[in-house]
Amino acid sequence: MGTPGEESDVDKRNSRPGSSEVLGLISSGDYCSAEIVAEYGTIPPAFLPHGQRRLFEWQVKLLSKWCSKLAITLPASYSIPEADSKWLEVAGVVVVPSDESLSLGASISAALDVLAHNGPMYLLHGDTLFRDLDAFPMDSVAVAPPKGSYMWGRLEARSAETDVIAGLFSMASAADFASSLEKGGGDFLSALVEYRDVAGIQEVTVDNWLDFGHLQNLYYSRRDAPVHRFFNGLRFEGRTVEKFGTDTLKIVAEGRWFDALPPIMRVYTPPFLGLVEDRYFLGYEPNPNLQDLYLFGKFRSGTWREILGACFEFLSLCRDFGEETGDPDVLRKLGPQKTRFRLSQWAEQNDLDTAREWVINSRSQVSLEEILDVTDSVIGEAKPTSALMHGDFCFSNIFYDFRQGQVRVVDPRGGVTLEKPTIMGALEYDLAKLNHSLVAYDQILAGRFSLLREGEYRVDFRLYPHPGRAELLSMLRDFQIEFFGTADATVSAITIQLFLSMLPLHSDQPQRQMAFLATAFELFSELVEG
Questions:
Q1: pTM
Q2: What is the rounded CA–CA span in Å between residue 144 and residue 209?
Q3: Residue 195 Cα distances to 26, 27, 62, 191, 269, angstroms
Q4: How far apart are CA 48 and CA 35, in angstroms?
Q5: How far apart are CA 338 and CA 379, in angstroms?
Q6: Which of 21, 483, 432, 40 is nearest to 222 (CA)?
Q7: Which one of 43, 211, 260, 411 has the fewest beta carbons within 10 angstroms of its own beta carbon?
């Protein structure tokens, strides 16, 4: 993201003589529509998820191209999570509380009063984003073909009969637009027409408009979200998804996993459309994944109990396909062998001694070698529960269909070893992946933590508060399959090793690596203390 306050070439072209600042205002002063609230909870539109971030992060990135001053309106009754509050503060975005009973126009008028801004401004609706939009002229309104059969706003004098207002506006004079809002009685569209008649506002047809104001459009806007995954890529074509990557062995194993699924289990995945050489194809899955719902939705315990219940419904069916003569060494192949190699790789890269003890949050801890020895022993003594195994059953790979009340999964591991693709494995590993996601992994990936490296072997770490984390962890431990679940010692040991095995995969994010390490130490303390 560009640094707010830096004047770009676009700023220089658009700023009028005498104007010292260009304001970028995101109007998100009310909550999402009822259909979206039913899935994500009561949050403002700009707080919806997009590309593993809040929508406002992308909106700020867009407006920063043109604006030296940034602000966002939010409902006065909304309690901003600590992680988001810190992000907005660091980005220099002024938060303007808004009375959600106000109309859109009245909310914007009140914000302009608070900001005391009279010069040039850009206005972006909180449920709107544009990809690859580098320039937008002053005194303009963005228009585009409508998306779906909704009641879209239109200006009377429009460039094309089908064009609708797309949610981005620029005004050379915020004072004149405020005057137009007053004359229009707070009605936004009337004020826009009034301002057009005074300033000669022009319509600019734009491409790549993403709308998040309606549930159907929100589903399909997800296809345009940049998703960062290791060693692979996704290509969306209409209603299909192509999965490819540099690790062709892994891609082929994933494709064969989908192809080998028993018919009854295919309802728990998007439609598999075939494996072609080193890539495979799926039907597009429009539903939200659990990572987005957990990190960016507003926690509702009843809904989450249903979601976790659906996860365990899937895992229970996977257990039904277990083999009586399953591989007794499967957990060692899945965990300890890989973890020891990756941990030694990471330690060597960072010139660290795995035999040294650490201090985490002012508490003395054991060495990494001891953690590996103890967790290896716990895993080695376990009798694996043979099951059809997904292998990467974490929140980002689990989608939830609210209408059907069931999960759908993507990105399977493809086998215990990629050289011999199989759908079979161990139930404990999938339970550990689910536990790993909720314990801390997703929050760490999203940067929702604070960490201070106080010495070579000393770390102070905490997750930012999540209003539902403690209740969700307790809820997760209530679910069991054949009398064991995520609280089982074997699952806990695998979870610890999962955090350690992630270390070398995030070499570009040293803070994230230390957060994984600190979490592993804290989980180990819980394991040995019972």
A1: 0.90
A2: 8
A3: 19, 18, 24, 6, 51
A4: 13
A5: 13
A6: 40
A7: 260
Structure tokens at 373: 């020895």
Q: Is the Cβ–Cβ distance between 209 and 124 less than 8 Å?
A: no
Do 318 and 389 meet the contact criterion of CB atoms below 8 Å apart?
yes
Q: 């509380």: which residue's tokens? A: 97
Q: What does the DSSP 8-state code read for residue 91?
A: T
pLDDT digits (tens, 9 = 90+) for 282-341: 999 989 999 999 999 998 899 999 999 999 999 999 999 999 877 889 999 998 888 999
Q: Residue 19: enclosing H or E segment and its boundaries?
A: none
Q: Give the amino acid at 46.
A: A
How many beta carbons lie within 10 A of that of residue 148, not counting itself? Answer: 11
| Environment class of 141 (CB within 10 Å of its CB; exposed 0-12, middle 13-18, buried 19+) | buried
**Interatomic CA distance for residues 350 and 202, integer angstroms:** 57
Report residue 459: phi and psi, to 5°.
-135, 135
Q: How far is CA 67 from CA 53, 95, 108, 338, 493, in A?
A: 21, 16, 17, 48, 50
The DSSP code sequence of 380-444 is HHS---EEE--S---GGGEEEETTTTEEEE-----SSSTTS--SEEEHHHHHHHHHHIIIIIHHH
Tokens of 154: 């239109």
Which residue in 390, 441, 398 sits closest to 416, CA to CA? 390
Cβ 425 vs Cβ 321: under 8 Å = no
* 357: three-class secondary structure by DSSP: strand
Q: Which DSSP category does 450 fall into?
A: E
Calpha distance 474→483 (Å, rounded): 16
Average pLDDT over residues 156-170: 73
What values do phi and psi take at 149, rounded to 5? -95, 60
Which tokens belong to 349?
């890269």
pLDDT at 158: 47
In this structure, the dihedral spanned by the alpha carbons of residues 393, 398, 403 and 404, taken in order and rounded to 10 degrees, is -30
Q: What is the spatial distance between Cα 281 and Cα 250, in angstroms, rounded to a whole number?
A: 14
Distance CA 46, CA 56 (A): 5
DSSP count for the chain of H helices, then E strands: 19, 23
Residue 287 φ/ψ, nearest 5 degrees: -75, 160
Tokens of 463: 């997750």
Letter for the amino acid at 126?
Answer: G
The answer to whether the beta carbons of residues 456 and 447 sit under 8 Å apart is no
Tokens of 204: 């600019």
CB atoms within 10 A of CB 511: 15
